[in-house]
């Protein structure tokens, strides 16, 4: 058991803190946000993540997890201090390291002995060395370890306990060995690297996954034009073990707090060493186009969207999370409102978060039936189970014109053909099955 202090109770920090407590460590989580710390101390977590609230409550009760705004108390007797603060994007796409350096300064000011600092946050290559400099300038002896996280929102706990690898990057063997020992109860494969390589593994992994998604989205557009089916194509490709089946699901483009930010940041990191990362720039451009592709198709279909009732189904950037950051729903809602449409939006959990980033003209509801009632067209943004399980007869019976743009390929073409529906999806043939009089709006 180690005494661990953790700075930052955002998504990564909270999951990391709760999971480290769960495997037996004594964890003190530090944050500057008093209200948040108060709520966390009562077991209330500020976002939706399956299983996390129970894990936090359980470890609060057994007193392995504790929340505080007091850095002296947080760092008191800590063997190791984790940094898990946010690294949001600057205007130019580079990472804003303000919170990272604040954390390093806090450690320099309030830590009492020599420290091992473990960085969980995604930080540009070379940042851990700067963290070490800041702390050692204060007279403390510090060793730094880069220990990037690879967890997915919505599956964070499972990913922590059943991850593919734990990356431990350090220039100091003792520090690396301590971090390996801390993580031992997870029984996940560990790899050791130097600091800079660990920092790069994180960016390269996210950039590669984003590349797979943009690649398959490009192939899907070509499939649409040539009459091939993207699902068969992706499956056939993915069975080649060198390619793999995962992250080849064509859709409305990637969103979230990681891929959009990390891809832009890696372009900047490359630019800083005078390398133009052409491939990754293309990945980003493809994704930007993919997010608005369905509205553009709809504009071709309806000529203009003025006064049309549009149902947006799903607002979060993927299912099982209330996170709407960089979700296609934001660009779609703005564009639709800009085109003069009336937009009604459904999501099972993300409405509160969506209200602060979507245009205020949008009407929000947790009832699918309410958004579909007399709608002229529906756009599926997120493949929530609630949406995938929705019988097609509901669209057919409730909408004024059942025209569906499915950004997640939630329905099989065979099933759609059984209904009086016009159905556009990604990388598959369009089904035009509307009664003639409903075809023209
Ligand atoms: C991603 C990575 O998967 C994690 O490994 C990483 O730790 C995390 O970023 C991070 O850097 O913190 P996350 O953002 O939670 O995790 O979401 P993903 O499940 O990777 O999905 C990202 C986006 O890609 C979503 O919008 C999703 O719908 C989309 N996606 C994913 C596709 O369009 N097609 C796919 O085949 C897979």
TrEMBL record:
Catalysed reaction equations from the record: UDP-alpha-D-glucose + 2 NAD(+) + H2O = UDP-alpha-D-glucuronate + 2 NADH + 3 H(+)
Positions of substrate binding: 150-153, 202, 247-251, 255, 318
Q: Which UniProt keywords apply?
A: NAD, Oxidoreductase
EC number(s) given by UniProt: 1.1.1.22
Q: Which family does it belong to?
A: Belongs to the UDP-glucose/GDP-mannose dehydrogenase family.
Query: Which PANTHER family did the record assign?
Result: UDP-GLUCOSE 6-DEHYDROGENASE TUAD (PTHR43750), UDP-GLUCOSE 6-DEHYDROGENASE YWQF (PTHR43750:SF4)
Q: What is this protein called?
A: UDP-glucose 6-dehydrogenase
């Amino acid at each position: 058991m180690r005494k661990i202090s953790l700075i930052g109770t955002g998504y990564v920090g909270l999951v990391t803190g709760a999971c480290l407590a769960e495997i037996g460590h004594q964890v003190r989580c530090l944050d500057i946000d008093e209200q948040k710390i108060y709520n966390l101390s009562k077991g209330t977590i500020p976002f939706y993540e399956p299983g996390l609230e129970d894990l936090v409550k359980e470890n609060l009760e057994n007193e392995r997890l504790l929340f505080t705004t007091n850095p002296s108390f947080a760092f008191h007797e800590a063997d190791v201090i984790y940094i898990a603060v946010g690294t949001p994007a600057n205007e130019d796409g580079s990472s804003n390291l303000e919170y990272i350096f604040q954390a390093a300064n806090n450690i320099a000011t309030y830590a009492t002995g020599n420290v091992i600092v473990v960085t969980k946050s995604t930080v540009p290559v070379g940042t851990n060395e700067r963290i070490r400099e800041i702390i050692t300038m204060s007279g403390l002896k510090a060793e730094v370890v880069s220990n990037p996280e690879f967890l997915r929102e919505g599956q964070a706990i499972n990913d922590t306990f059943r991850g593919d690898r734990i990356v431990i990057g350090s220039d100091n063997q003792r520090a690396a060995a301590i971090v390996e020992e801390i993580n031992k109860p997870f029984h996940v494969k560990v790899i050791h690297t130097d600091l800079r390589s660990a920092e790069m593994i994180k960016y390269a992994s996210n950039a590669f996954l984003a590349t797979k998604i943009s690649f398959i989205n490009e192939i899907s557009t070509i499939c649409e034009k040539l009459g091939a089916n993207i699902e068969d194509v992706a499956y056939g490709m993915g069975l080649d073990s060198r390619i793999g089946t995962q992250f080849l699901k064509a859709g409305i483009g990637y969103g979230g707090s990681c891929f959009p930010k990390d891809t832009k940041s890696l372009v900047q990191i490359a630019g800083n060493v005078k390398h133009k990362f052409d491939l990754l720039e293309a990945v980003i451009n493809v994704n930007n186009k993919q997010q608005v592709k369905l509205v553009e198709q709809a504009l071709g279909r309806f000529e203009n969207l003025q006064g049309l009732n549009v149902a947006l189904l799903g607002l979060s950037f993927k299912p099982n999370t209330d996170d709407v950051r960089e979700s296609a729903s934001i660009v779609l809602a703005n564009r639709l409102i800009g085109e003069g449409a009336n937009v009604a939006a459904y999501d099972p959990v993300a409405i509160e978060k969506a209200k602060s980033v979507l245009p205020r003209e949008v009407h929000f509801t947790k009832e699918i039936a309410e958004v579909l009632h007399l709608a002229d067209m529906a756009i599926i943004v997120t493949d929530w189970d609630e949406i995938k399980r929705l019988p097609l007869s509901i669209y057919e019976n409730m909408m004024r014109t059942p025209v569906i743009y499915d950004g997640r390929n939630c329905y099989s073409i065979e099933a759609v053909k059984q209904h009086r529906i016009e159905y556009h999806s990604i990388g598959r043939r369009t089904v035009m099955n509307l009664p003639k009089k409903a075809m023209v709006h």
